Amino acid sequence: MAVLGIALASYIALCSRAMKLSNRSYQDALSRQLAEFGLEEGLRAFNEADWNDWANAPAGITAGSWSLNSATKRATRTITFDSSKIGQGNTATVKVRVDNYDASILGTTTWNSSRTYGANELVEYNGEWYRSTKGGNISGTPSPMGNKGNWAPEPFPWAWHSNENYQQNVDVVCEDGNWYRCASTHITTASSTPPTASDPKWTQIPPPELGMVSGTLYTTDQYVYSAEDQTWYRCLISHTFSGFISANWEAVSGASTSAYHPPWAYRTSVSYTFNDVVYYNGVWYRYINPTPSSNAPTNPTYWENALSGMFGWNSSGTKYNLGDIVYAGSRWYRCIKSHSSSGSTTPATSPIYWATTPSYSTAWDAARSYSAGDLVRYNGLWYRCLQGNTGISITDSGYWANPLDSFFTWSRSTSYGVGSTTRYGGAWYTCILGNTGVSPNDATYWTATRGNSAGISTGATVVYAEATIDVPGGRSVQTQLRALLQPAALFPNALGATGPISLGSGGTIDSYATNPISNIPTWGFSAVVASTQQTSTAVTAVKTIIKGFVAAPPGTSAPLASFGSNAEVKGSAATPSPTKADPARLSRSPFVPQFDPLPANGLSANWSTLAKGTLVPSTGTVNLGTPGATVPSRYYCSSLTIDNSNISALNIDGPVILYISGNLTVGSHFTNNSANRVTIASTGSVEIHVGGSMNVTQNGGGFDNQTKDPRKLILICDSSGTSAQTYSDGDNDFYGVIYAPNTASLDGFLVGNSSTVIFGAVSAKKITFTNDANVHYDTSLRSATFGGVEQPYTITELRELPATERATMP
Q1: Which residue in 5, 82, 171, 210 has the fewest CB atoms around it within 10 Å?
Q2: What angle do CA 785, 786, 789 make, to 5 degrees?
């Protein structure tokens, strides 16, 4: 009996311990799940820029309000769960902390007279937006005419660009803060260089001024606008102004016969064409009629107010998305929260939806000036500026701290002083209280927010979530998670599809990385061809050589991919015999992200409530966009055909958003003319939305992207119908990305010409190459963001924090 009693007691104790361990494991798992819920709540609020209270919290859950600290750039929230939600009499608390909570909607401050500005900065002043035109630091008050060349108002044409017919003594451009007048008529090409003081085709002149001011020295050949009689004048003799003397000035507007006419001065003798911009009676006007004429800017049939026309805010239920730009009540506004407009949500009275400042981009820009300490993003990583510079390659370790360099990584054994900087978990941290061994997650000692030379405090966005299970009479169970937020990849694959991919009869698919300064590519083996098709073969390659990887769902013994005897999937090393498809480069885990195109639910469903801009003509050579502008110009049309009978050529001279409710056709089936093409100048970029079919034939010139940067061209085909989505041009290599996630066309996105070469990427519902598949994937697309697609931020570098690296929570 004694032995039995001892055995029974031991068994009961063992069962009790097992039950406690099982309960403990359950609580650990629940704690982690609640911490993951906290990360998701932080991610949701950040993506939607929505830091408001929940409208209806479920019973048993108390959601505290978000607390936003604009000084530390930190958002915090606490959410509690009672025992009805957790069970077993337990309760739970979830604490969330978001560092740099406003990084997705950053704005710049208004122009500040106490600081100097670097190249290519965008500021607000008196309701207008100006960009700095000069390399290196500049100062001075912005004005509508550029303030001695330092500032150019948005979005008007000052910048020199390619593919332009410049007219002698008429055209005037600003290049690096210097102003030039065309000295001899000429046409620029993709290989032309900007003007210099020694260029015989250009004459350097003084910068234009807006207004004749007493005591101001005006110099010969300087253009000055007189607000008194609303006329442009050219200074004939250098003098200090004390009153208007006709011998000192020559009127260059109206019917003047002078040989010197700046292009922005309206003249009755000039026949204006679509998209021309003039300054008349103190207002900027844009020519909108397809028929050239000399009609005055006050005629609404031919002209629109260049600001309130193309960018005018509309109160009639227009759907505005994050980042949209409008002009209302004589000033600019930027959408900071998606919404549908109404008379009660005007930009002037709705700061929850609209900001008056332009956005600040943390993406590295080779044309921008940076100072020591500035933080920038490049190819998905954060770099820190070590020395002030303009145009120094981000890969130069003398000027930029490489985030992958272990030298900058936080070390527990290092002693850090106030102001010292380290990298931890993908973000840069600055020490605010000297310490040794304190992790950067501790807000008492470290901050992930850093001020920069543009007057902006920002950095990487980091989310922390701490979940605590409170057990009555027992020990609490706690989990802390940390994650970095980065824009989700839209084009991680060279070719990505949710349906089958057929690669035709040959060709090569590979990858390249472009030097950010020299633009010279380095070729590699990291192109990915991925399909999530599960009901049949996902990827079929007959003879194509894939220098990279193929990803397809698992089949019986291998991924659902089929390779012909001459097809190859390989890396830099020799492919193992006997197969030419290296098994190590065949993945069973395809990743094909596809997000909603904007506007949500497609063009056809939103056409009446879309902020479309200016109607595009249907004939002639059409120029869109403004060289040097930062704000994209918006245009629209019901269909767009580029051939000898319609638009003969389309030139993209600046940043452009183009909405086409119907079909896009480039080239004629009956006439072979490579001049029928879309040309993107060195100053251009374009986001094209197509609501119907896309047919780029091999009889036209396709898309000639002279920037050679695939990020400057995105074709978004949001149709879910059976209309064709075809690209078959072989005259010009295609530098860009194509996004057709909904097409129900039999072939999906179709390439029907073996001469077609794509530098960029394609993501579609289905992809078909009937001949050779020649695709060169730009690896910078892995971290690129694009307008026109609801491309959210996502969680990266997720890890559970050990006790020694716990974060400071609210």
Answers
A1: 5
A2: 115
Task: Specify whether 410 is located in the same domain as 529.
Answer: no
pLDDT at 258 over 80: no
Number of H helices, E strands in the chain: 3, 69
**What amino acid occupies position 332?**
W
- Inside any domain, residue 25: no
DSSP state of 14: H
Angle at 612 between CA 607 and CA 615, to 5 degrees: 105
Provide the CA 720 distance to its chain's centre, in angstroms.
25
Q: How many CB atoms lie within 10 A of CB 328?
A: 18
Q: Indicate whether 390 belongs to any domain.
A: yes
Which residue from 358, 688, 681, 366 is spatially nearest to 518, judged by alpha carbons?
A: 366
Q: Is 71 exposed, middle or buried (0-12, 13-18, 19+ CB in 10 A)?
A: exposed
The pLDDT value recorded for residue 35 is 98
Length of the chain (residues): 810
Q: Could you give the CA distance from residue 245 to residue 297 in angstroms, rounded to a whole number?
A: 28
- Expressed as residue numbers, the domain containing 504 is 488-594+756-784
92 forms bridges with which residues in the sheet? 81, 469
Residues 724 and 610 in one domain: yes
Mean predicted confidence (pLDDT) in 637-657: 97
Same domain, 549 and 568: yes
Quote the number of domains for the chain.
4
Q: Among 130, 156, 182, which residue terminates a domain?
A: 156
Judgement on whether residues 454 and 406 belong to the same structural domain of the protein: yes
Q: Sign (positive/negative) of CA torsion 543, 544, 545, 547?
A: negative
Q: Name the β-bridge partners of 207.
A: none
CA end-to-end span of the chain: 58
Does residue 414 sit in the same domain as residue 525?
A: no
* Same domain assignment for residues 717 and 768: no
614 in the same domain as 553? no
Residue 298 lies in a domain: no
φ and ψ at 369, to 5 degrees?
Answer: -90, 135
25-54 confidence digits (pLDDT tens) = 888 899 999 999 999 999 999 999 999 988
764, part of any domain: yes
3-state secondary structure of 346: coil
Kindly state whether residues 569 and 615 are assigned to the same domain: no
506 DSSP 8-state letter: B
CATH code of 144's domain: 2.10.10
- The amino acid at residue 623 is N
Could you give the angle at the alpha carbon of 304 between the alpha carbons of 301 and 309, nearest 5°? 130
pTM to 2 decimal places: 0.92
Burial of 399 (0-12, 13-18, 19+ CB in 10 A): middle
Query: What residues contact 757, with CB distance under 8 A and at least 6 apart?
Result: 730, 733, 734, 774, 775, 776
Q: Please check whether residue 664 is in contact with residue 691, taking contact to mean a CB–CB distance below 8 angstroms.
A: no
